[in-house]
Protein: 6-phosphogluconolactonase
Organism: Rhizobium puerariae
Amino acid sequence: MTAKLHEFSDAAALADALADKVATQLATAIEERGAASIAVSGGSTPKRFFEVLSASDIDWCKVTVTLVDERFVPADNSRSNHLLVATHLLKDKAAAAAFIPLYYDAPSIAEAADVATRKTAGIGHPFDVVILGMGTDGHTASFFPHGNNLARALDLSGPRGVLTMEAEGAGEERLTFSFSSLSDARFLALHIEGQGKKDVLDKAKAGTDETEMPIRAALNRARSPLEIYWAP
């Protein structure tokens, strides 16, 4: 297991520390390679982190932002991760960043995944930063327990790109980067808050069945060390 836990006193301290670390990673990528890439997750947990990161003094015009995963809903839908990121991250100094969405108005979600794969083909080889989240069911990205495309999504030998996912706990159909796209990020982090999420994490660490708790793939098989950022 190549995961390291960073504990903080509260969510504000976590957001500050994670934003500082991410800003440093992005600035280093720009200095060394002339550009930087970051894939972020949705949900309520990263809002404070996004707000802090958006004010970071880096060369945002050289940063490309995308999503780890997305619901198959338009960007103006309240459930859209695109809307969340646009509201809380792509503002202030970070308004200068480029953004590549995963949702596209295509006839089917499979066709939308193909478009997203083409649109994101120029970034993420590897990503400079990937920020994962985790649900109380042990899912991360849109790798849901017993999802219809889970085996393909978690296959590290599979191609990079965006896949579709349907699962009982997912609600809408989902678009998600494959594990092979995310697992070798130069900085790979899991951002979780609350004792309940810590308990889920501890349960995941104690077992091996990835179909039951897909977060175990990130804990046990990621190519890059997983940095876990947690606050109660």
Summary: The beta strands are 3-7, 36-40, 63-67, 69-71, 98-100, 129-132, 162-165, 174-177, 187-193, 226-231. The chain has one domain: 3-223.
